[in-house]
Amino acid sequence: MKKFSLLEEPWIPVFREGRVEEVGLREALLQAHNITRIETPSPLEEAALHRLILAVLHRALMGPKDKWEALEWWEEGRFPEDPIRAYLEEYQDRFFLFHPDAPFLQVADLPDTPIPKENPGPRPWTTLLPELASGNNPTLFDHTTEEDVPKATYAQAARALLVHQTFTPGGLLRRFGVPSAKGAPLAGAAAFLPTGENLFQTLLLNLVPYSSTEAREDAPVWEAPPLRLRDVREYRTKWPLSGRTRVYTWPARGVRLLDEGDGVRFMAYGPGVEPIPTPFRDPMVAYRSDAKGNPLPLRLDVDRSFWRDFSSMLPVKEGSPPASLAHADEILRTLKEEGEKGSRSLRVLGQVSDQAKVLDIRREVYPLPKGILSDVAKLNLSSALEQAEDLGQGLRALAFVLAREVLGNRDPQELSSFARSLPLGRLYWHALDGAFPGFLARVGEGEALGLWQEALKRAAVEAWAATRLFLGTEARHLKAVAEGERVLGRLLGELKEVVK
Questions:
Q1: Which of 86, 105, 322, 500 is at 20 to 30 A from 363, Cα to Cα?
Q2: Could you list the mean pLDDT of each consecutive 10-residue stretch along the chain, which spans 500 residues?
Q3: Taking the C-alpha atoms of 296, 302, 308 and 314 in order, what is their torsion angle to the nearest 10 degrees?
Q4: pLDDT score of 140
């Protein structure tokens, strides 16, 4: 039987009029101008939910054709309702979480009973979320086990399903003739999400122009025939990894949620659609070029904040910003010229993974200033990050100098280990994590680099002060401090010369 319509039932968490509530997809679309934002503690949910809503908007409105149509909608303050209502009416049968023939983002006839050499049996729903414990995934924020699976509400299960189809990494599967499955579209990429003052503005800033040619060659999963076991067995169905709404709603795995009447505890699980690589670039992803000139998506790193890689997406570094950011910059620059004010932000969302294991989940929020992709801003950003890395490398060398002064001529590995134990580099980068948003907010201004220089100097001096206390007061420590002072002075002097 049909059950739990994602169009009507509340399942999308939003912040509206000072409180968090859940709404259906229809309300999120038609009342976006009255909703402040999607509100979820999960960065992956935030990205996946926005991509779903954007996919519906692109297909319902068949646009925007260009930034001018997007600006017309902006001036109207809401999306055109009639085409959205008509589109949802046409495809309403494809948005049921439970459906005998076409459950949303699932395979209706996927077996849940064990089949020798084909299907070990059902899996807990917690498999869908990397932050919950299941299988051999590392436990990030949860301590449940597969022997004690909590029951998910239908709303939780729907959101988890969407996250999994968007972010699941590739790895061993061993189900229905597929030994190893490919990763989902955002499994190894950071998603850029420019945000406005309400959900309507946020969606419009991410509605990158959608040409009629692209629209003809594109289709979200609900416009395609429902998948069956025969389609996903042995990866028999292969789609090109292209088309914006197809990629936004990609069925990376075969799933069938098992309804227990008031929630979900287990699911049938198997392969989904095999992606055929194409030159397509995801509008929410930034790319850099490898040694052969091939585009590689920018990823989050477990050991460093994402801002340190911002310059690698700029053309001066043979990279390219996400189309969503370029579109938002165009919109906001036009609005600024017309005198509109308002604060916007750029959210970087995603996971840090090592092959099939998810090591961390990240949300980083930065200012989204006027002209973030202007020529001045690009040059300032590239120069500022180069200075930060150069000084960081200098401090790493300084730490090794301290290690040699304190320990003498020891084994290089021992000296490196001691140098890494010093707080110098760690505190330097931690201070810059806090300083970078202020710099980015003014990145297009003439004095931005001067302010950044002061931030670099302050971060290095404060990190050095803490390192001095860490070293101790014996003669060898005092000698190391004296040598460190000399090296630090040289580093700061070189920094000043670079800025001039």
A1: 105
A2: 96 96 98 97 97 98 96 96 98 98 98 93 94 50 62 98 96 95 95 96 97 95 98 97 97 98 96 95 91 86 87 68 94 79 86 84 91 88 92 94 86 89 94 95 89 95 93 86 92 71
A3: 10
A4: 47
Q: Are 27 and 45 in contact (CB under 8 A)?
A: no
Cβ–Cβ contacts within 10 Å for residue 378, how many? 20
d(CA 182, CA 239): 13
Q: Given this model, what pLDDT does residue 339 score?
A: 65
Q: Are 106 and 256 in contact (CB under 8 A)?
A: yes
Give the amino acid at 51: R
DSSP β-bridge partners for residue 287: 297, 320
Predicted pLDDT of residue 23: 98
Bridge partners, residue 13, by sequence: 22
Nearest 5°: phi and psi at 124? Answer: -70, 150
CA distance 8 to 155: 12
The residues with which 295 forms a beta bridge, in sequence order, are: 289
- Domain boundaries in the chain? 3-276, 294-373, 376-499
* Vertex 257: Cα angle to 252 and 262 (nearest 5): 150
Contact 174, 358 (CB under 8 A): no
Is the pTM value of this prediction over 0.90?
Answer: yes
| SS3 state of residue 228 | coil
Supply the angle between the helices 43-61 and 81-90 in degrees, to the nearest 10: 100
Bridge partners of residue 181, in order along the sequence: 171
Q: How far apart are CA 55 and CA 220, in angstroms?
A: 7
Distance of alpha carbon 387 from alpha carbon 378, whole angstroms: 14
* CA dist., res. 276 & res. 352, Å (int): 24
Neighbours of 22 (CB within 10 A): 16
The residues with which 345 forms a beta bridge, in sequence order, are 195, 367
The CATH class of 376-499 is mainly alpha
> Are the beta carbons of 32 and 16 closer than 8 angstroms?
no
Phi-psi region of 364 (alpha: psi -120 to 50; beta: other; left: phi over 0): beta
Q: Tell me what pLDDT residue 37 has.
A: 97
Query: Which residues is 256 bridged to in the sheet?
Result: 268
The pLDDT assigned to 373 comes to: 87
